[in-house]
Amino acid sequence: MDRSVNPDTAREKLIIRPIQEKDLPQISRIEAKIFSDPWSEQAFQESIHLEYTLFLAAECEGEIAGYCGCYLSLDEAEITNVAVKEECRGQGIAKAMLQELLRQGMVRGAKSFFLEVRAGNRPAICLYEKMGFEHSGVRRNFYEHPREDAYIMWKRFPES
Fold first, then answer.
1. Helices (H), the chain
2. Neighbour order of strands in the sheet with 112-118
3. SS3 assignment, position 84
4. pLDDT of res. 138
5. Which one of the listed residues 116, 134, 143, 159 is annotated catalytic?
6. Is 61 among the residues known to form the active site?
7. Contact criterion met (CB below 8 Å) for 28 and 44
8. In this predicted structure, what is the pLDDT of residue 6?
9. Residue 71 DSSP class
10. What Å distances lie between residue 79 and 61, 123, 132, CA to CA?
């Protein structure tokens, strides 16, 4: 059963960890509710086991509140998924997941991260900008259902 996360306790009880097989039914339900062209449960299952991927779940009180993931290639990472259950938004869950994704990606050698985001998704764009992502281009008509442009955004870390 999918329950709402209590906003008063969400941050204190939030656990960000690698996605496990047992999470996939919940993740697939969230994905289907949020995205017009959702990944299938099988797509997640195949992706979480690849050595060049990193997929994280945000768990609160035993329920999946959100998830994110990326593909790693040399020193770059493509962020493919960032999703938070509608009833759990506005609690800092996406920011916490992304911070951990960036941290773990850097441990694995990534020095830059990029993503595509719907041009009309102002909340996500604002979050990415606050986290230091910069606009670098537009993919015209990238999304379908409805057709919409995608902004390409990058976050680059200086060489250490």
1. 7-13, 24-34, 41-48, 93-107, 122-130
2. 14-18, 53-60, 63-73, 76-84, 112-118, 148-156, 134-143
3. strand
4. 97
5. 116
6. no
7. yes
8. 45
9. E
10. 26, 17, 14
> Residue 157 half-sphere exposure, CB side, CA atoms within 13 Å?
16
What is the per-residue pLDDT across 127-146, written as a single tens digit (0 to 9) for each? 999 999 999 999 999 998 89
Tens digit of each residue's pLDDT (9 = 90 or more) over 30-87: 999 999 889 999 999 999 999 999 999 999 999 999 999 999 999 999 999 999 999 9
d(CA 40, CA 24): 9
Give the CATH H-level superfamily of domain 7-112. Gcn5-related N-acetyltransferase (GNAT) (3.40.630.30)
- CA-CA-CA-CA torsion sign (116, 107, 21, 58): negative
Active-site residue, selected from the candidate residues 67, 128, 143, 151:
128
Token pair in block for residue 34 = 């949020």
Q: 3-state DSSP helix/strand/coil percent for the chain, to nearest 5?
A: 35, 35, 30
Query: Catalytic annotation on 128?
Result: yes
pTM of the model: 0.89
The domain spans of the chain are 7-112
Which DSSP letter does residue 159 get?
P
